[in-house]
Specification:
Number of domains of chain A: 1
Distance between the termini of chain A: 87 Å
Shape of chain B: elongated
Largest sheet of chain B: none
Radius of gyration of chain A: 22 Å
Structural class of chain B: mainly alpha
Oligomer: heterodimer
Order of helices and strands of chain A: EEHHHHHHH
Number of strands of chain B: 0
Structural class of chain A: mainly alpha
Distance between the termini of chain B: 69 Å
Number of helices of chain B: 8
């Protein structure tokens, strides 16, 4: 009588104490996360590249420039900012990758976006803690912009200090 | 021009996605092992000082750590779990929510932005300072909720 038994690869252990199942689980999870991210990032990159080739970015920069100046960002940085507000981090990352800005701008943008990204979805999630929709929205946007501008001022002061010395 | 857009869009997308893959996959594997070995629970006992520093009880350190390291969704799952068990009062829930809203998912978000060229050190410190200040500020201004601080039996 032949008995065939099936074993999953994830049941094995390395050296009998290191399980392999979290490895497979991690890869599986990251697969789904990456597919979800790709569905958002790739269209965003194509949109930004299209805007770039149609020379619409300078136009946008001209109109949104005055608002961006207060936080020390170029006008075209408004795109990752708005994408970060309404979509999620990955969309704004796609937009940042398609533009080119210096380290200072990216750091300031990172702080603002990290404080206030996916506002809509996370407002729903935060409602469980008792934070109202308007409260979380206002808190995160104001805090993000304020501290982003603080960091920007910090960078500028540092530049000025280095020039003086 | 259409061909230019498709060509450049394709290569940039590939570039970005490869960067994402090399960051996300190791992080997820690491987090799965952390979940398997219950590292979060064991570490959060040592981080009681952190939540006391914010003005929260020591039980809040576990949701704070989970939310900070992993992400808002998992942190919220832990918070909902805790609130159903009645381990945290409403005011503490609110403060934990405020802190996590500003400062969650530090590992993966920071690494993703570092891949774009930002200064991680600065972002890390700035986020902590912002979250800390705002949490303390709000704790100062909101009236004390009725203490629903009922521990599970």
């Amino acid at each position: 009588m032949i008995i065939i038994s099936f074993t999953k690869w994830s049941d094995f252990y390395l050296y009998d104490c290191f399980p392999l199942s979290p490895l497979f689980q991690g890869v599986r999870r990251s697969f789904f996360i990456i597919i979800t991210m790709a569905k958002i990032i790739v269209p965003v990159i194509f949109i930004v590249v299209t805007l770039d080739k149609m020379d619409l970015l300078p136009v946008m920069a001209k109109y949104l420039g005055p608002f961006m100046w207060y936080i020390g960002l170029p006008g075209e940085a408004a795109l990752p900012l708005l994408l970060g507000f309404f979509l999620n981090i990955y969309a704004s990352l796609g937009a940042i990758g398609a533009l080119n800005m210096g380290a200072r701008e990216i750091t300031v943008l990172a702080i603002i976006i990290l404080t206030s990204h996916s506002l809509i979805v996370e407002a729903l999630v935060l409602k469980f803690t008792g934070l109202s929709y308007a409260g979380s929205l206002l808190l995160r946007i104001v805090t993000g912009l304020f501290f982003g501008s603080m960091v920007n001022i910090g960078y500028l002061l540092l530049d000025m200090a280095i020039d003086v010395l | 021009m259409f061909q230019e857009i498709v060509g450049e869009g394709f290569w940039q997308s590939l570039d970005t996605m490869l960067m994402m893959i090399f960051i996300i996959v190791p992080i997820m594997i690491f987090l799965e092992y952390a979940r398997y070995w219950n590292i979060m629970e064991r570490l959060s006992k040592y981080f009681g000082w952190f939540s006391r520093w914010l003005g929260l009880p020591a039980e809040a350190s576990f949701p704070l750590m989970v939310g900070m390291v992993i992400g808002l969704v998992y942190g919220m799952a832990v918070i909902i779990d805790y609130s159903q068990k009645g381990l945290l009062s409403k005011k503490d829930l609110l403060l934990v929510g405020v802190f996590l809203a500003i400062n969650h998912g530090i590992i993966e978000d920071n690494l993703l932005f570092a891949a774009m060229g930002a200064n991680i050190f600065l972002i890390f410190i700035a986020r902590f300072i912002v979250a800390f200040l705002v949490t303390r500020l709000i704790a100062h201004f909101i009236p004390h909720y009725q203490n629903a601080h009922i521990k599970a039996n």
